[in-house]
Amino acid sequence: MTLGEFEDMMDSCVRCSKCKFIPQLVIQSKRFSSICPSIDYFNFHAYSGGGRMIAASAYHKGRVDLTPEMLDVIYSCTNCGGCEISCKWVYELEPNEAIHELRVAAVESGAGPMPKHKKYIELVERNKNPYGEEPEKRPQWLTDDIATNESSSTLYFVGCTASYRREEIAVATAKILNAAGEDFRLMGSDEMCCGSPVYRVGDQKTAIKIMKENIEQFKEAGIKKIITSCSGCYNMLKVEYPRFVEHDIEVLHTSQIIEGFLEDGKIKLTEEVSLKLTYHDPCHLGRMAEPYEPWEGEKIEVLSQVYIYDPPKPERRGSNGVYDAPRNVLKQIPGVELVEMERIREYSYCCGAGGGCKSAFPAFALWASNERLEEAESTGASTLVSACPFCGTNFRDGIKSRGSPMEYFDLTELVLRSMGGGK
Amino acid sequence: MLEKNVYDAFTDVVGKRYISQDPAVMDTYAFQWCNEIESAQRGEEPQRFGTRPLAVLLPESTEQVQAIVRLCNEHDVGFKALTTGMGPWAGVSNPRAIQIDLRRMNRIIEIDSKNMYVVIEPYVTNAQLQCELFEYGLMHHAQGAGPQTSPLASHTSFVGPGFTSPYTGFSGRNVLGVEWVLPDGDILRLGSFDHNGKWFTGDGPGLSLRGIMRGWLGAYGGLGVFTKAAIRLFSWPAPKDWKWKTSGTIPEYDWDVPPYWQMYVLNFEEWEEYQKAMYELSDREVTMVATTSAPEGLAALFTNTKTEAIESIFAGLLAKTRNYIVMLVAAHTQREFDFRTKLVRLIMEKYGGNDLIADGVTSPKPMHYGETVRNMLGAHAFRFSNCFQSTHGGMDTISMAVRLAQLNQPVKQKYIDKGVIGDDRGLGVWITSYESGHMAHMETPTVYDPTDVESCLGYAAYQDECNQMDLDEALGMPFFIVGDEVHNFYADRTMNYPDWLRKIKASFDPNGVSDPSHYVKGDKKKK
């Protein structure tokens, strides 16, 4: 869709501010009632989901230009989709989608994305990762005791962050796959960024090119199934790729495949891991992970001024994200006591890193992680667990900055430890 | 643009991070629900973008608000404060005005459980406040605008009926004291707070100016800025160890219904029986909720999506539904519950009613009990077309509400027949009794399409005709669409009350900087 195709939607916002909060029915306390890190940090209405839709409408109607402050408004959104979940309680609006189209329009105009984004897009195109690391170093995390099978049709798509920054996740994942007897291959130094950091900031042209090249590479390698460590990679391959490039590759997140291993008895969690922990739902594994089902049809007026879609248009309301798999895994680790935060599942509070914010607005990203850590601490848990290397990086930075007594682990690290392999 | 020296002076007050004059940021304050109707009523192209403020400021304290207001007086700049800001009354009308966004002032200052009041800042929302009051076994009155809106804004500045009105009254009745930055920058604290530091009454022994401050209608933010308010609390009818608990996944959440709660939808074939039953149910103080809408509205109340609502309509809900009252009996004890439910049954039988829940016509789920007391049901009406607005708006007797509903039907039907507003067969109303007495609030919510010019123009014409009907039939003033023109429209039949409003406005706002928006300007009505 283009920004213009969102015009009716943008004009239909009633500026009610529901997009600033978790769905009103599930609010349990004042402290943890908000959903949007951006409005919480920047405060002007423009920094909310509804506010950005209005700004997008103003831009589309030619009322405003892409000033530096407008670019801040556009790009200080973590693209977490929380606003959309709350909005859809009542309205048929998609603020998160409209924000994305505004970013695309900003890039097409030449004003966007932000300089930091342009820099890492260059690095992705040159080095295949946004960190600017050498492609040859991508498989350096691989230890001698990990077995891969380069003729396997199952690909462990490690992702840039687990490859270069959170290698312990890559190691744990590979060892769990080995223990379960799950044959897999790697792309090694040929693995290209999934395109998420490029796509999220609106450089759709480059992102689609990456998607096409990746799918081509997967097809050439005979890949039938992809396992990802990263929620962002999962979201791209599972949800966004099919919107632009056809593929029939099965995409699984590590939490899902581990849940399956446990169900099938392929791995056993025997070692006690005595931790009181709480789980953070990554946005791109949770509410944003619902598949985008293509729809074609028409609006029919069934009552005066009341329209429905024929055939019914699939709704993405966040109810079908990957919420239970990581929890089911954690609950099976001996000694683990799982306590929940107030904001969970489809109304989880974003860690603050996504949408290009970690690079372009690092102070904001760090502040958001602190907000989430305060909520995690309030549960009485000693440990925060999630299932995304990028969330994990931001949380580790947050723990350091606030001197939090909490520890952070990726789900795979605890699973490996309980298997007796990662003390 | 503001002059540089003025902008710099504002910046000195709030700091660089909390002031903006970027056009896109400003447009997110200029854009308001219902601007499209008001622009249509003025004969302009319907559109949601209204007047753009020259700057937006985010103060964090009363002192900063005061400093901003003083600068406005000094530099002849209008100002308008807002909280969550939903509706054209939240925006500015003066092209040389700034917007004061009170979002950073969001503290609950004090919960006095013994004297049953709470002191809050502007950006505490209804849902937030409700959550924090449960542990004290207390609740407040939340206005129908919804759980995400500000109780301070409603209590100080807006009429404020809500879904629990039979039990909690309306906002104007429940404000006990305020901290008020007057249009000239002085700070005034009303009521007992001024005397002894406690906020339990707005009527002294300190100054009592509640009538001037808001009266029935409220000044819609056109008379200074309210930075704190003490509001009355009520007993929450659930055990103290009961927790607000939801489970499941959107849109089908589950909610733990407290013991001794029961919902009814009492249905009466004719308005006459409905009216008698409503009087008796209210007088007997049986129910926490007593609310009426169109049969189409009932379809939306207890469903979770537009599709479900439409399906229930086509499944025959309309044929089985006439004039109904959604009721929530919420008792503290079994004995109280037995007493109240018995009364409900007796009153229903006395007036020949039936319970649509018992008959299986509608089936509220536990989450709908939660939505009811969290004041979320009004928003369900937005599901049909993403938009509705209300005409009329008297808070008068129950019989007046019924009369208004009956008179409105053929007028509304005319616009339905034109295809410009939603088809509820002209029956679309919202009636709620309040204060367990003989009073009721009545308005007529009407669905329209904000993206369709003909629909906006059609709704605007319907609104104008309703205003005329209010005047011709002595139905009272509308409570939504106000401002100088509408006030003037009713002046001759209402002892020229706008002249008095203008005197108040001129006295409190000698420099005319507190943007009147939907209040009155300080000048005299032209005769």
Structural class of chain A, please? alpha/beta
On the 0 to 100 scale, the average pLDDT of chain B is 94
- DSSP summary, beta strand count of chain B: 20
Form type of chain B = globular
Number of helical stretches of at least 4 residues of chain B: 19
Helical stretch count of chain A?
Answer: 18
Q: Which strand order does the major sheet of chain A show?
A: 7-4-8-9
Low-confidence stretches of chain B: none
Helix content of chain B: 25-40%
N→C terminal distance of chain B: 36 Å
Structural class of chain B: alpha+beta
What is the N-to-C order of secondary-structure elements of chain A (H for helix, E for strand)?
A: HHHHHHHEHHHHEHEHEEEHEHHEHEH
What characteristic shape of chain A results from the CA principal axes?
globular
Notes on the structure:
The complex is a heterodimer of chains A (423) and B (527). In chain A, 43% of the residues lie in helices and 9% in strands. In chain A, strand 5 and strand 6 form a beta hairpin. In chain A, the strands form three sheets. In chain A, strands 7-4-8-9 form a four-stranded parallel sheet, sandwiched between helices. Chain A is built from 18 helices and nine strands. Chain A is α/β, with parallel strands linked by helices. In chain B, a hairpin with a 2-residue loop joins strand 11 and strand 12. The model of chain B has no long low-confidence stretch (mean pLDDT 94). In chain B, helix 16 packs antiparallel against helix 17. In chain B, the strands form four sheets. In chain B, strands 13, 14, 15, 16, 17, 18, 19 and 20 form an eight-stranded antiparallel sheet that branches. The two termini of chain B are 36 Å apart. Chain B is built from 19 helices and 20 strands. The longest helix of chain B is centred in the C-terminal third of the chain and has 20 residues. Chain B has 527 residues and is α+β, with helices and mostly antiparallel strands. At the A-B interface, helix 1, helix 3, helix 4 and strand 6 of A face helix 2, helix 5, helix 13 and helix 15 of B.
